[in-house]
Amino acid sequence: MSIIITVSNQKGGVGKTTTSAAICAGLADRGAKVLGIDLDPQGNLGFCMGLEGSNPTTILDALQGKVRVQQAIRRLKKCDILPSDISLSTTGLEKLAPGKREVALKEMLQPLMDYYDYVVIDTPPALNLLTINAYAVSNFLIIPMSSDILSLVGLSQLRETIDTVKQGLNKDLKVLGILLNKFDKRTTLARDVEEMAGGLAEQISTKVFETKIRPGVAIAEAPAHGEDIFSYNKRSPAVTDYARFIEEIAEDIHLREVIG
User: CDD domains in the record, alphabetically (predicted)?
Assistant: First the structure.
């Protein structure tokens, strides 16, 4: 049975897609069979993983039942990708009956659940129906944040959404942790944000990951070269941070699966 990890924050620019792509590549480098799912209409996850060209079928076609989900998957060097594009902005899911619209993604993924070791979902910068679908099907949630005060704004709403999903759709959803991106420990602001993020983590029964991601130009350069960050530049400080982060979540997931 696949372990499903969703990367989510309703604020844009906090590193959701970069983190999703890093998890996909990092777990694949450990020998896992990984599927990345792009639930963001901007469609950047595939690009970050080296996907080229337009996609004749996308996740929206599979969600709407126009094609089997297997037909929409693109095979890449390290992992598979279920791509999206701007058409995902209007899904039509809201036309489904209550109770069905929130679990459309879960039902769509059923044929794949014994094929992949991990499924990693990149969500849009919004708490919308697509995000609810991701939470409803996931085992674990990772919340990336930039090291600025504005990244903390709105996280109380995120907490409320998580609580609602756990009460009605997915009681087993676990928040694996908060990941601080663009983190410069030399600055007072970064230390203040870390402290406030720790307070928020306590409220949602999770933690701030020990690993913090430093700023790094290689993170931005890798997609332009059609490579994931680990293939592009393993020596970049930010990339080595992401490598440690993958080790940390792999250990956490294993421990939580053992503990139950």
Answer: ParAB_family
Q: Residue 99 gets which letter from DSSP?
A: T
221 CB-contact burial (10 Å; exposed 0-12 / middle 13-18 / buried 19+):
middle
3-class secondary structure, 57 = coil
Give the C-alpha separation, 7 to 125, whole Å: 10
For the chain, give every domain's residue range. Answer: 3-259
pLDDT in tens, 138-171: 999 999 998 877 777 767 778 888 999 999 899 9
β-pairing, 3-7 with 140-146?
parallel
Give the DSSP H/E element, type plus range, for residue 23. Answer: helix 16-29
Distance CA 165, CA 167 (A): 5
* Long-range contacts (CB closer than 8 Å, 24 or more residues apart) made by 96-99: none
Q: Does domain 3-259 sit in CATH 3.40.50.300?
A: yes
Cα dist. 96→103, 104, 105 in Å?
Answer: 10, 9, 12
